[in-house]
Amino acid sequence: MKWKDKLNLLLCIISDLQIIHSQELIHRDLHCGNILLQESLSSAYIVDLGLSIHSNIVDKIGPEDIYGVLPYIAPEIFDKRPYTTASDIYSFGIIMWEILYGKSVYYNKEFNQQLQIEICCNNLRPSIIKDTPQCYINLMKECWEKCPEHRPTAEKIYDIFTKWNDDERILLELSSSDNLLKDIENGHDQIYNETKYCSRIYYSTSFILDAVK
Description:
GO terms for molecular function: ATP binding; protein serine/threonine kinase activity. Keywords: Kinase, Transferase. Residues 1-161 form the Protein kinase domain. The protein is mainly α. The protein has a single domain, classed as Transferase(Phosphotransferase), domain 1 (Orthogonal Bundle). Helices cover 46% and strands 8% of the residues.
């Protein structure tokens, strides 16, 4: 995919998320399986709002109610903090990684309790290949910030992507990585396991650590 097309998909997704957040809703289960693409890859849509919740009642959700796909769940959720629009932004950051590299997020290890601990306690994030466009990496890392208050809003991300689309300098920087990204996609031999990317219930990290002691 050309960078213009990648940016267009990201704009579609963040636009949907901006609309959801403008209604004071939190999606709570944003991941690749809940993004629908047109066959031409010209548009993308966020779907499955079954777990979405209004921000006014989010505090009534128990800390044990953690549900989703592990790599997309914001680390503060595993620390018994409530879902917020910022937790959706963390999930969007993982989707940015997938659109960048053209493959499903992975860590070369099982999606299990050990991975959860490393994400929450050791700030583990998906690996970034050298020479990937720095402007894109910086924004993606902002979405991954451990502190949810430091993550950008959906509105801010939408504005950034819109400006990039009209900035020839930025487009040139992004396009310069096309050959690198193509080699990564062609050399990627990860076997997609659909069951790994299905939402399920998780325990808090403190619960897991207490159980190990």
